[in-house]
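Example 4.3 (complexes with small molecules)
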Amino acid sequence: MSLKIYNTLSRKLEEFTPLNPPNVGLYTCGPTVYMYAHIGNLRTYIFEDILKRVLLANNYKVDHVMNITDVGHLTSDADTGEDKLEKEATKENKNAWEIAAFYTAAFQKDLEELNIIPPDIWCKATDHINEQIELVKRLESKGFTYRADDGIYFDTSKLSDYGKLAGLDIEGLKAGIRVEMVAGKKNPTDFALWKFSPVGVKRQMEWDSPWGKGFPGWHIECAAMSMKYLGETFDIHCGGIDHIPVHHTNEIAEAEAATGKPFVRYWLHGEFLELKEGRMGKSEGNAILISTLKEKGFDPLSYRYLVLNTHYRKKIEFDLDSLAAAQTSLNNLKSTIANIQLMADLLTYYPNYRALLKDAANNFEANYGAIVRAFDEACNTDLNMPQALANLNIFLNKYQEKLDFENANEILNVLTKMDAILGLKLLPKVHELIPANLISLLNSRQAKRTEKNWVESDNLRGEIESLGFLVKDTPRGQILEIKGENKNV
Ligand code: AMP
Ligand code: ZN
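Answer. The structure with adenosine monophosphate bound is encoded below.
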């Protein structure tokens, strides 16, 4: 089956083919580590994780690189303002390096809580200052740079297709825009490659360079590190939609001006998560964190489930009521699957139980084949996870309608594959929960029912319940479910 993804660069759904199959080079822009990531940021990392898991399900080998922006960049896209890291360091009475280390660890913990597969390579901007200087030198030697008052800038007028990712109207920008202009900056879209440390100021993070002491601009770290680890042209680069007009546009400018080659083949961008009142952000003071959700009693994976219920290119308006609904749906899914696992384990480990059940002819392909293919098709059609989840539900309903425990093991195999993409930890371990005397109780109860001794049969039901299991009398015989209060699952 072919994988189709929406490429921001072409503004089209395209068939995905890697440059060097079976490898796929994937670069995802990481966090600026001066604060905790909020659930809006984390929505973008969940979308990227789904992309990666779908690639893996298609048998690609994914080389995933994520950066950590630990250089203190300035608080506006226009290269002016205060340094975020140093500002936070002063506030917390720490130094900039300590702030970066602390929030990097916090971010990695958030990824773990959301069951996001970590990248193969984490790269810190501060560990790659030389690579960034080398890239600026390359741009300088090709005539793409100039010196302004506060740094070395990229001259965007020298690159004929500057702004192609965002479809930027450069002439319109020149005529209309009123950006905070730095003295000596030639065009509104020009951006800093290297910033000078201000005269008389000792910054906590600064490095020597051919242009004087200072620190790299933001975009250059991603251009330099992605090309170092994935090559000058690589397959996929992602981020949130806010990165399209400035950050990714400028990464493309830097990389393509330096190499003369196309930088990235597929650009994917995730839509924002917002609150009713609008944008969520550190500066708006309304940031919701994973720890906030946990304090309110939510499982972080219910947030993952909520995110998967909206296509990644659509906005999410977040509120706690929808998160509560997501948590309920996720718990229902998990208990349905735990009951399938229970029946599979009973049949595998207790062959005597099989004799208690009536036969039925259930054909896996006839009953489920089309649904399983629809799940795959949804994932492979621009990561349509709402559709994939709908198919998962249809799949489970079919099982419940058929009471199809002969196929339980095959169904669980399929669910394992589906969950390898969804990442919701849907499959519990049940086997250890089955008490040794469960089957003999079922046997005795069967005998009492044949004798029509309903009193004894009910007593036995009570005994089984006290072990944490519900007995259901179905056309196929006595089947078991895990009792809601059985917290071991
Ligand atoms: P930052 O740490 O600000 O560079 O952001 C990290 C990632 O989160 C980037 O890919 C941003 O595009 C993304 N992002 C920021 N805010 C939101 C939001 N409200 N919803 C979704 N993604 C976001
Ligand atoms: Zn980046």
